[in-house]
Write a structure and sequence with these properties.
Largest sheet: 6 strands, parallel
Number of helices: 8
Oligomer: single chain
Bound molecules: ribose-5-phosphate
Number of strands: 15
Structural class: alpha/beta
Order of helices and strands: EHEEEHEHEEHEHEEEEHEHEEH
Helix content: 25-40%
Radius of gyration: 20 Å
Distance between the termini: 10 Å
Shape: globular
Length: 294
């Protein structure tokens, strides 16, 4: 038997998934003792069950990682047969090497902790860059789904014609190329220079016709929004009719949504992180995957 739970961040998505796979949903209680130590309690009997924890790594990624480890160990201790984590947004993947001496390599530490504590991981569009495949860091079954299809469908419904796709940096070809091919429109992927965590420059290396087009800029992560804003400026300069931002994972830190709103006609995200911009639903892809393999 399967039960679906969530910790602090993803109860909406967890409930949807539970309903679709016709499994009971039970919210796990996560709180703190007066001194700040974690308190976690399952409100259902997990003995002999496959426990699916649906939990996005935003907000509060550091805390989420610890919550997942505590939940997994507690579930196993109480006799759970398997612990499967569905982390629609998996954090820590951007620090995938030591950029400066002395730094922790977050992706390796996070994956080691998950390898040691859970049985299976499912995520959506993880930030794969220098780590090319999930199996480079995960020894447990770790599957990544993509939201390319749902994003392509969404764009097609929203704009009937005159669409062009822009990827704001080299790595975004993974979304821009696939989505533009699915819709049958042109795309260009910009070149980004990151001067600091909050300062980027982008330049167009392959010119395509953006004049009077509905330009849709797609990226995996919207964090400070600065990458998107720079790409929007380039698109406007080239005569875009409207500029839309689509992010798979909308982190929107440091007032990003407000900052972005004056450069964009529309800002949409996939519902991997609960946010008001969630207009693209990834539930069907998750349900299809877990229905195959449960
Ligand atoms: C990094 O390479 C990602 O693909 C995103 O482009 C990046 O995380 C966006 O960050 P920000 O919104 O802070 O510019």
């Amino acid at each position: 038997m399967v039960i679906v739970t969530s910790l602090k961040n993803s109860s909406k998505l967890a409930k949807k998934i539970a309903k679709e796979i016709q499994a009971p949903f039970s919210q796990t209680y996560v709180s703190e003792f007066p001194d700040g130590d974690m308190y976690l309690r399952f409100k259902t009997d997990v003995k002999g069950k496959k426990v699916i924890i649906v939990e996005s790594f935003q907000p509060n990624s550091n805390e989420v990682l610890l919550n997942i480890i505590f939940a997994a160990q507690a579930a196993k201790k109480q006799g759970a047969k398997k612990v499967i984590v569905i982390a629609p947004y998996l954090a820590f993947m951007r620090q995938d090497k030591m950029f400066n001496s002395g730094e922790a390599i977050n992706a390796q530490i996070m994956s080691k902790l998950l390898n040691e504590n859970i049985d299976k991981l499912l995520t959506v569009d993880p930030h794969l860059h220098r780590i090319e495949k999930m199996k480079d860091v995960f020894s447990i079954p770790a599957k990544n789904l993509t939201s390319n299809d749902v994003i392509a469908n969404f764009i097609q419904k929203k704009f009937k014609k005159n669409v062009a796709i822009v990827g704001p940096d080299w790595e975004s070809y993974q979304w821009a190329d696939k989505i533009s091919a699915a819709i049958g429109v042109e795309d260009t992927v910009l070149e980004k220079t990151r001067n600091s965590t909050r300062n980027v420059d982008v330049k167009v290396t392959k010119e395509i016709d953006l004049k009077d087009k509905h330009v849709v800029i797609v990226d995996d992560i919207i964090s400070t929004g600065n990458t998107m804003i720079k790409a929007a400026k380039q698109s406007k300069q080239r005569g875009a009719k409207t500029v839309t931002a689509i992010g798979v994972h909308g982190l929107f830190v440091e007032n990003a949504l407000n900052k972005m709103s004056k450069y964009f006609d529309n800002i949409y995200t996939v519902n991997t992180i609960e946010h008001e911009t969630n207009k693209i639903d990834i539930t069907p892809a998750i349900v299809e995957e877990i229905s195959k393999k449960l």
